[in-house]
Amino acid sequence: GDTRAYSMGGWSSGPAWSTIKVPLAVAALRADPVAAEPLTVKAIVESDNLASEELWSLLGEPAAAARQVQAVIAECGDTSTVVESRRVR
Hints:
Helix content is 57%, strand content 0%. The protein is built from 4 helices and no strands. Helix 1 (17-31) packs antiparallel against helix 2 (33-45), helix 1 crosses helix 3 and helix 2 (33-45) packs antiparallel against helix 3.
């Protein structure tokens, strides 16, 4: 399979939920599958940003959430992406 990484442009401001929804969902499903499952559907299928924020909140404090999502990304071979724990707008 294709293992190359692709960049589709830059992101300069606002929460980047669209770019991180899948690893966020994986981390949340691992942490709390019952609560995360319906939120995952909303976040990914419906592009629901509130559901993404709720998935994030299932992962604990922001620093812990960031570490968990970053670990999912690293499992896929990307060890350079850093997940921001602070809400930066």
